[in-house]
Specification:
The protein has 156 residues and is of the alpha/beta class. The chain has one domain: Immunoglobulin-like. The protein is 28% helix and 25% strand. The protein has three helices and eight strands, in the order H-E-E-E-E-E-E-E-E-H-H. It has a four-stranded mixed β-sheet with strand order 2-1-4-6, with no helix packed on it. Helix 2 runs antiparallel to helix 3. The longest helix has 19 residues. The termini are far apart. The model has no long low-confidence stretch (mean pLDDT 89). The chain binds copper (II) ion (CU). The site of copper (II) ion (CU) has 7 residues, from loops.
Length: 156
C-alpha cells in the first residue's frame, strides 16, 4: 500500500503554517489616515483589534470620536488641533469620528474594528441617535456610505 499526498495538499499545508506563523508575528498592523483638504483619506478604515491608526497631515485638523457612535465602554478620543497622532484600537466595534472645526463640512470618518456582531443593527442604532442629537447630522452621509461600502465588501 502506498500513501500519496497530492502536491497541492502539501502546498496548502505549508501555506497554512506560514500564514499562522505570520499572523502570530504580525500581531498588529499600522494603518494611515491622511487629512486632505477637509477630508480624511481613506474615509473608512477596516482594522483588526490591536491595530494602530496613524493620523497624518493633521495641520488645522483633529480627531474627535462621537460618543453616541462608539461602542459601549469606548474611551473617547479628542486630539489636539494640528497634531499628528496614533491610536491603538483594542476592542471590536464601529467608531465614528470627526474633525471638530470642519464637522460642518462633514470632515469625518469611520473605523470598523474586527467583525462586530450585527453591524447593520449598529449602523441603524447610530442613525437613530441623529434624532436626539442634531449636532451629529453630518454623520448621516458617512453612515450611509459606510453601509454601501460594507455591502460591497460582503461585510453586511
Ligand atoms: Cu479638519
Amino acid at each position: 500500500m502506498t500513501i500519496t499526498f497530492s502536491k497541492s495538499r502539501i502546498i496548502s499545508a505549508i501555506l497554512f503554517a506560514a500564514l499562522s506563523l505570520s499572523a502570530n508575528i504580525a500581531m498588529s498592523t499600522e494603518h494611515t489616515v491622511t487629512a486632505v483638504a477637509v477630508k480624511f483619506k481613506p474615509m473608512f478604515v477596516y482594522i483588526e483589534p490591536g491595530d494602530t491608526i496613524n493620523f497624518e497631515s493633521m495641520g488645522g485638523h483633529n480627531v474627535e470620536t462621537i460618543d453616541l457612535m462608539s461602542p459601549e465602554g469606548f474611551e473617547k478620543i479628542n486630539s489636539e488641533l494640528g497634531e499628528n497622532i496614533s491610536f491603538v484600537f483594542e476592542s471590536e466595534g464601529i467608531i465614528v469620528f470627526k474633525c471638530t472645526p470642519h464637522w460642518g463640512a462633514r470632515m469625518g470618518g469611520i473605523i470598523v474594528v474586527g467583525q462586530p456582531e450585527d453591524p447593520s443593527a449598529i449602523l441603524d442604532g447610530y442613525m437613530a441617535t441623529l434624532e436626539s442629537d442634531r449636532s451629529n447630522l453630518p454623520a448621516k452621509g458617512l453612515l450611509k456610505k459606510l453601509r454601501k461600502d460594507m455591502e460591497k465588501k460582503g461585510l453586511l
